[in-house]
Amino acid sequence: xxxxxxxPSWIEAIASLLLVAVSAAVAYRQRLGLTREPLVxxxxxxxHLVAVGAVLGLIFAHGGPASGFLWGIVMVVIAGxxxxxxxxxxxxxxxxxxxxxxxxxxxxxxxLSARDAFLPHQRSALRTxxxxxxxxxxxxx
Amino acid sequence: MDGFALESxxxxxxxxxxLDGVSAWIESGRCTAVVGPSGAGKTTLLRVLNxxxxxxxxxxxxxxxxxxxxxxxxxxxxVGLVAQRPVLVTDAVADELRVGxxxxxxxxxxxxxxxxxxxxxxxxxxxELSGGEAQRLCLARALAVEPEVLLLDEPTSAxxxxxxxxxxxxxxxxxxxxxxxxxxxxxxxxxxxxxxHVLVLNHGRIIAAGPPRELDxxxxx
Lengths: 141, 221
What we know:
The structure holds 2 protein chains of 2 kinds.
Chain A: H1 10-29, H2 36-62, H3 65-109, H4 114-130
Helix pairs in contact in A: 1-2, 3-4
Chain B: E1 3-13, E2 16-27, E3 31-35, H1 42-49, E4 57-62, E5 65-66, H2 72-78, E6 79-82, H3 93-96, H4 105-114, H5 131-143, E7 149-153, H6 161-176, E8 180-184, H7 188-194, E9 197-202, E10 205-210, H8 216-219
Parallel strand pairs in B: 3-8, 3-9, 6-7, 7-8
Antiparallel strand pairs in B: 1-2, 1-4, 4-5, 9-10
């Protein structure tokens, strides 16, 4: 049985790296203190993908339908776990915005623009959005 | 005549009507008090005046011009609002007075003095302040912008009697200097002392309006 393996093209790989660079650039420009984290997370994801790809290659080359089925279950459990953590992150983002409302309104009342009034909380929101799931939250500025 | 003209203002949130067809005149260079029971729509009325809240229907004019057509940043610098619950947005008192603008040390000290806070207060951390001190700092912060109109939402609710008197005097001074004050208060002694005109709100509607001495609402409380 031959192993069908569709490696990503160079353009796809470069496009992925560009997206990582954009998130690192946003983190740097907004002074989020998270510039390293997207790069580390991208490298970690790369290693994970290569490892998972190798395991999948072995399963499809040498395993039967049962091992493929078992692997599928493992993947669903892991994906559910990761999605759950992402959901908690989104909930936290919404809670942060609701808690920040009085402070944002206080700045608006002093004649600040909506952008300036939201800026301190924008950093916190971006941190939450850009933070890889395994990196613990930090308190906002 | 200069001032705010409210034309059939309705504000709804979901099924609730926070303001229900409010029409009123708030004259420039005077102190207008807004009184009424909790949930009557007093705070919503103040928020409409500096566009923190947009009316669902109706419009507000300031000096004859619809505020919805004016630059909102300019409007909020002209019309300062001090909220009922003090919210401080920096860590240091001196920084709090400089939010969004440069302010000399002398001006900062003068503002603190104006709201009855000692000069050494400028070196304090905002986290150390009591509710009353934070409220006075919020008032000083609003005055730093030099607004023509001061919207005060229960400014004396967290203060002792002596400081409440000081805030009432400050509102009177603002009017004496040509400014306008719109005061929401449950403290009817303060209302009688500083207000030229009173609007009585209930269930989002104005049920009475007039000088403080003519209003039964004040007499029976």
